[in-house]
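Thought: the user asked what Putative membrane protein DUF2306 looks like in 3D. I have the sequence; next I should run the structure tool and report back without guessing.
Action: structure_tool
Action Input:
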Amino acid sequence: MPTRTSLPRRPRWLVPAALLALCLVPLLAGVLRAVQLAGGPEVAVPDARFSADPLPVALHVVAATVFGFLGALQFLPGRRALRPRWHRLAGRVVVPAGLVVAVSGVWMVAGYPYAANGGPGLSTLRLVVATALAVFLVLGVVAILRGDVRAHRAWMIRAYALALGAGTQVLTLGLPAVLLGPPGPTANALLHGLGWGINLAVAEWAIRGSAPSTAAVPRRAVPTGTAA
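Observation:
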């Protein structure tokens, strides 16, 4: 009988570790900014916009930290399968945190003046992404309440991909800035959009790659007998 060769399995911690690494730099920058706004040492260039109204920034940083770290742990396959109660309880924290990220993002766009290399293009893009993040989270909750685990997982992956946009933007903004200098408002908006676009493309690839295939479903063996 032909034997089926099994592919080497990835370590279960690899995906959560990669996600945590991706969100580490922007989260660290946000935490340092929040500490500075709370009266701590000046570790970043002061921003008068945030100093005048620190509340939306503080909410955004705290919620993004919770969403980023707890959300990454939700992708541990063993934890979902062996500890479904933990997965559900963590989800009840992750979803509100993600909604706070979205709402505080809209608040900052509406309440703060443009940054030096900002503009209406980047602000519009941020409003679209924040709205999409909230919609994806709500659709994920609605799906799991209907018992549709597959749709729930897909919507939550998309939401998490948008929330991790800042991690990818460290690369899409940082590399061109090193090579070509700081981008202008239009290029800045395009490079931000590229970061979110890359994340969504990877999310769709992950969703489709994990979808069950009809060819992969084992068939029930049919008993055979000898002819009389």
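Thought: the tool returned a structure. Summarizing for the user.
Final Answer: Structure for Putative membrane protein DUF2306 predicted. The chain has nine helices and no strands. Confidence is low (pLDDT under 50) at residues 1-7, 213-228.
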